[in-house]
Amino acid sequence: MTTIKYDPTQDFIHSTLTSITGRPTRTGIKCLEKENKDNARQIHSLRGNGNEGHLRLCYTLDRFNARPAVAGTPWVDPVHPGTRPDVPDGATGPQITHMVSAHKYDLTEFQLFQSTEKALLRKTMEAVEEVYYKSLQDPDEGYSTLSYNDLIVHLNEQYGTLTNDDLDKNIDRMNAKWTQHSPSNSSSIRSTMPAPSHATMTTSLKEPPSVCT
User: Fold this and answer.
1) Domains of the chain, residue spans
2) For the chain, percent of residues with pLDDT exceeding 70
């Protein structure tokens, strides 16, 4: 069986993803997702609409095909064509040549799909401290059966939502700025204006800026 030597990471725009130090945040996770999508687009594929590379790997198949961009041209994941081409008895020379060529193409396409997915996973694991995804490790297989989407779903579910503690910390920061920067001669005005609360902060809450661009 022929194995491709191509390393997808050599064509990634982001050779190193923006790392997350400590507990992942929603902003940090979204930054990783964006960079991985940029990278996946760079790995060419004719599947789907033929214009988005291997972007499919950053979505579940159903969600990817529900996007307007691939309407009428759904992506179908490549499958392993077998170790050898299926050549029937009596096939002519040209027919055999065509079958061998088609098998090689299908195998290369499958291996590229697999290697790109593993590259996305590896880069993401390098950007996040292991303690935050170690629960996904199989006691026997390690991370060998873990997919990129499994990891991203885990990070979003565990760390990608805003908690009451996040709200409290953000309110404390804004109250501190309010007190620090308000003119001293306007205390009477400040006393008539409500300080930020959960009710007013929910829609405006922001995490620290991300360096992701």
Assistant:
1) 8-159, 166-201
2) 76
